[in-house]
């Protein structure tokens, strides 16, 4: 919810409209309509993951440094300390995973939108849709391959494994299929924009 407020409030800050946020089991959607320029759209999109980028180190620091200090005031074996400890730990991990998930360079994730909006600044709207759509489709197909257990990778620095050869992960397959489908739609939209501009 806080991530979606990041989108909605930043959209309003750049002069756009944002009046609805819907939460559902797989996340949330902020319905935003920034002014039709790349900077307004980029600011609106970036401010969602930025919320997670801020909360992740805050809860990490609370877990690593705050809990030992709190132990001077609340007994470590108390229920209250256990709730605070679990909350800090899970909010740290959840915000890190949400940040990484949202930076996948494919639609409908924010990473796909950020890629398209950065390209929009340099190569124009139609070509940005075209390139971002192709990259997102390939990225989505890659997730399907990982999810079907045909390959496996480890994201460096954070040492996060994705996929394992010989073992299917249907969540990765679902994410990949959604990303490929949505990104292919963006690629198709770029062709429609091109046809519209020719008329």
Protein described:
The longest helix is centred in the first third of the chain and has 33 residues, at 38-70. The chain is built from six helices and four strands, in the order H-E-E-H-H-H-H-E-E-H. The protein has 199 residues and is mainly alpha-helical. Residues 195-199 have low confidence and may be disordered. The N and C termini lie far apart (42 Å).
Strand fraction band? 5-15%
H/I helix tally: 6
Question: What share of the residues lie within helices?
Answer: 55-70%
* SSE class: mainly alpha
Widest β-sheet, arrangement of strands: 1-2
Which keywords apply here?
199 residues; mainly alpha; two-stranded antiparallel ribbon
Quick structural gist:
It is built from 6 helices and 4 strands; from the N terminus they run αββααααββα. The protein is mainly α and about 200 residues long.
Topology:
Layout: H1 2-13, E1 17-24, E2 27-33, H2 38-70, H3 79-102, H4 110-123, H5 125-147, E3 153-155, E4 160-162, H6 170-198
Antiparallel strand pairs: 1-2, 3-4
């Amino acid at each position: 919810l806080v991530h979606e407020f990041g989108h909605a409030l930043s959209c309003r800050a750049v002069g756009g409209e944002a009046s609805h946020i819907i939460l559902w089991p797989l996340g949330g959607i902020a319905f935003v309509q920034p002014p039709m320029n790349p900077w307004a759209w980029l600011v609106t999109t970036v401010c969602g993951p930025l919320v997670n980028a801020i909360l992740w180190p805050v809860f990490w620091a609370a877990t690593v440094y705050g809990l030992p200090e709190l132990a001077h005031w609340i007994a470590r074996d108390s229920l209250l300390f256990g709730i605070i400890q679990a909350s800090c730990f899970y909010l740290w991990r959840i915000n890190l995973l949400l940040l990484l998930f949202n930076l996948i360079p494919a639609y409908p994730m924010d990473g796909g939108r950020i890629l398209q909006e950065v390209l929009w600044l340099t190569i124009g709207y139609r070509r940005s849709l075209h390139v971002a759509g192709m990259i997102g489709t390939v990225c989505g197909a890659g997730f399907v391959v990982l999810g079907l257990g045909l390959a496996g990778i480890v994201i460096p620095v954070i040492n996060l494994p994705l996929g394992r050869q010989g073992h299917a992960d249907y969540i990765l397959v679902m994410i990949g299929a959604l990303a490929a489908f949505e990104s292919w739609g963006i690629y198709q939209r770029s062709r429609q924009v091109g046809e519209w501009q020719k008329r």
